[in-house]
Design brief:
746 residues, alpha/beta, Rossmann fold, Jelly Rolls, ten-stranded mixed sheet, six-stranded antiparallel sheet, 19 helices, 30% helix, globular
Length: 746
């Protein structure tokens, strides 16, 4: 008994906590075998892919390659430090796993999430971080398997799996390009030469600038002409010190830099200024319109690409305040500068510039700036530095994918000038057709040859109109979400721009009327235009006699010209014309909606009637053309069968002698539904990216229909074109929904 009582239980003592942690730290990498060390390349690659995207979206001005190498170096250093710290922490906790590898995975998913979170919602950031990290894990494990001594069959399977992933990414499904929505009946091709082909002029190129630009020698020490900087301090207050260090000047001495393409010959020649929009400041934009400059110079225009890069956004410095106003102001200052050159016999401009024939071309914010420059009185009436602007006769304005935002509470309202808006339906930057708003606000107070037109291109985007902006409308990293597959190539998109820009300036500044049909009906130029996309064109000339429009009041039955309206078997209501986000464009139209009608039932109709002839008394001869704008909105219906079958409509004219004639609209033109656009790679992303900016796939756009009145006379020779008193639109089949506006005659 005594011996048993003396026995004690032996309990081993744990080493002190300090010793245990020390042992774990020393064994931090015990599970990181050669396989897992090789596998780290996968998460590293995923993280560096994103860092490279960030570098492209945050240029420094030293070149993309330099930026990418710098950002990858920073990212790699961060991964090295973070992965080792995470490995130590995991070792202290005691988790039995490859800790260095796990640390690299934690770093990758965390850094990708926070990079995308800066400009996205949490869901997109989380999914993107997870997907890219998993892709990195798979790639890393594949690399580890190939590195270690696994069977040849297993290596083959891993390689095949990675190949399948790559092929799948390459053939990601996308919406198909829009088909050409029109037939060519009654739209004879223009017989003149293709306006996109070079003309008969040789030309010279030269530059003018401050002489102090150290980023671009063509505006610096190698510039051909020295221009005088201008002081914009009255407009710009926000100009950072870093921006001053980058450019070497502040808002008090903004340079007037321009690239010039000038025809050879005596002249004088029309002057055309071209200006870019708000791209990244360090990624210079003014070089991007050289393809237009060369074409225009060969056709007898002096073309100048204006540098306003110093007004653009920078990730590092933001954007100057009042930049929109200053963009227009700088254009006017360039006109002043060129006028000074033109008076100097020592410059190539001497006696070569026709200031009575000036055209302005602007892209994006530049597209708004050119309209503001024409309507300068709204913003610069008290600016004594500009002097009298009446000596600069701006006759033509071209806006490519323009913005249209209020500046000092005002919007440009331009008069007695020809205006052209060019827009792509797949524009992921300015994805509303804002050029249509300026089209609406362009008016004519006197009979003239001026006109306004727009061309909406089903598969064009924003950036490809500028050769320096790349093919994505949004900078990286967000740009990876854009759906690029249905967009027409840059060469074709710029070919469209060349055709329309050249034909427009030939019509407005050279007075070449042979190209005018292109703006009335794009089908007259289909033998020039790329065929693998769709077009929607709108037109109104200064000689248009408008019979019906819907801005004068809210009474749907009365017309401003004194007539009456009536709808039968349909719903008809006057309402605002809106963009894809349901924001008003500043005008109204009549919306007609009808249900399917039986074969033996009276068709739905919308009639405009007058007590006597609606023709203006000043008309000395019978009218020639019936014109109206129409927008197919059948896509808004719950069952939009009419949009897929095409609009089935007839147009009837009545004259005071009791005669009438009706023709089927489909025999002359097909009214197409607007393109259904998928801006991003997945519908789920479409609804969340940029605050839901892309969740509206279609925008109702107007098309102008111009019908020769002689076609009605062919149906009924007794119709008196000199005494027309009524117009009726008939709609069969259904359901259908359209909007009408601007009904009248030429």
């Amino acid at each position: 008994m005594e011996l048993q009582q003396l026995q004690t239980e032996y309990i081993p003592l744990k080493p002190p906590l300090r010793i245990r942690f020390g042992r774990r730290i020393r064994e931090t990498y015990r599970y990181d075998t050669a396989f897992w060390r090789m596998a780290v390349v996968g998460p590293w690659g995923a993280a560096m892919f994103v860092f490279a995207l960030v570098a492209l979206g945050m240029p420094t001005g030293f070149g993309a390659l330099t930026d990418i190498l710098a950002f990858i170096s920073v990212g790699t250093t961060g991964l090295f430090i973070a992965a080792h710290l995470a490995a130590v922490l995991l070792a202290i906790i005691g988790l039995p796993l490859p800790r260095l590898y796990a640390g690299s995975v934690i770093y990758t998913i965390t850094v990708i999430f926070f990079i995308f979170w800066q400009d996205h919602d949490v869901a997109i950031s989380a999914v993107t971080a997870t997907v890219l990290t998993l892709a990195g894990i798979v790639a890393g494990i594949g690399a580890g398997l190939l590195r270690t001594r696994f069977s040849r069959r297993l290596r083959f399977l891993v390689t095949a799996a990675l190949g399948v992933l790559c092929v799948s990414a390459a053939v990601w499904p996308a919406d198909s390009p829009a088909a050409n929505p029109s037939i060519t009946k009654h739209a004879a091709p223009i017989e003149s030469e293709n306006p996109a082909e070079p003309g008969n002029y040789g030309y010279i190129t030269f530059d003018y600038g401050s002489g102090n630009d150290y980023w671009r020698t063509e505006f610096g020490k190698k510039t051909d002409l020295i221009s005088t900087p201008v002081d914009a301090s009255a407009y710009i207050e926000k100009w950072s010190a870093f921006r001053t260090r980058y450019w070497g000047f502040d808002q008090s001495s903004l340079p007037l830099n321009g690239r010039v393409w000038m025809p050879e010959g005596e002249g004088p020649f029309p002057l055309v200024l071209m200006v870019h929009g708000n791209h990244l400041m360090e990624d210079f934009s003014d070089e991007g319109y050289g393809y237009l400059g060369e074409l225009l110079a060969s056709r007898g225009f002096i073309a100048v690409s204006v540098d306003e890069n110093y007004l653009n956004y920078s990730v590092w410095t933001g954007i100057p305040n009042n930049d929109m106003k200053v963009r227009a102001w700088i254009l006017l200052k360039h006109l002043q500068q060129i006028e000074g050159f033109a008076d100097d016999a020592a410059t190539p401009f001497y006696q070569k510039v026709n200031f009575a024939q000036i055209g302005l071309i602007g892209h994006s914010r530049g597209g708004q700036a050119v309209a503001m420059a024409k309507d300068a009185g709204h913003w610069f009436s008290t600016d004594e530095t500009l002097g009298s602007l009446e000596r600069y006769n701006i006759q033509a304005i071209i806006a490519i994918s323009p913005t249209d935002k209020k500046v000092d509470g005002e919007l440009a309202r331009i008069k007695n000038v020809s205006y052209l808006a060019i827009q792509g339906a797949r524009d992921a930057d300015v994805n509303d057709f804002d050029g249509d708003r300026q089209y609406i606000r362009t008016s004519f107070t006197n009979p003239s040859t001026h006109f306004k037109s727009s061309i909406y291109i089903a598969d064009a985007n924003h950036s490809q109109f500028n050769t320096e902006w790349g093919f994505r409308d949004i900078s990286f990293p967000k740009g990876i979400f854009l759906n690029q597959q249905a967009i027409i190539g840059p060469k074709k998109q710029r070919e469209i721009a060349k055709i329309y820009v050249s034909a427009f300036l030939e019509s407005t500044l050279h007075g070449n009327g042979s190209y005018l049909p292109l703006f009335r009906d794009y089908r007259t130029g289909l033998h020039w235009l790329p065929a693998d996309t769709g077009y929607f064109s709108r037109f109104e000339g200064a000689l248009f006699n408008k019979m019906a429009w819907y801005d004068e009041d809210l009474n749907r039955r009365t017309l401003p010209s004194g007539g009456l309206a009536q709808g039968n078997h349909l719903t008809w209501v006057e309402e605002e014309v809106k963009n894809r986000k349901s924001v008003s464009k500043g005008t109204r139209g009549i919306t007609l909606e009808w249900v399917e009608r039986e074969y033996n039932e009276e068709p739905a109709s919308y009639s405009l009637s007058w007590h006597s002839s609606f023709l203006p008394r000043r008309m000395t001869k019978p009218p020639e053309i019936l014109s109206f704008s129409i927008s197919d909105r059948s896509f808004e219906l719950i069952e939009p069968s009419a949009s897929s079958a095409g609009l089935q409509a007839e147009v009837e004219l009545q004259s005071t002698n009791g005669e009438s004639a009706r023709i089927p609209l489909t025999d002359y033109v097909e009214i197409a539904s607007p393109p259904d656009v998928a801006f991003t790679i997945l519908p789920w992303v479409e609804k969340r990216l940029s605050g839901g900016k892309y969740k509206y796939p279609q925008e109702a756009v107007f098309q102008t229909v111009m019908l020769n009145l002689s076609e009605f006379v062919k149906v009924n020779p007794q119709l008196d074109l000199s005494a027309l008193k009524g117009i009726t639109f008939y709609f069969s089949k259904g359901p259908g929904k359209i909007m009408l506006d601007d009904i009248g005659i030429y």
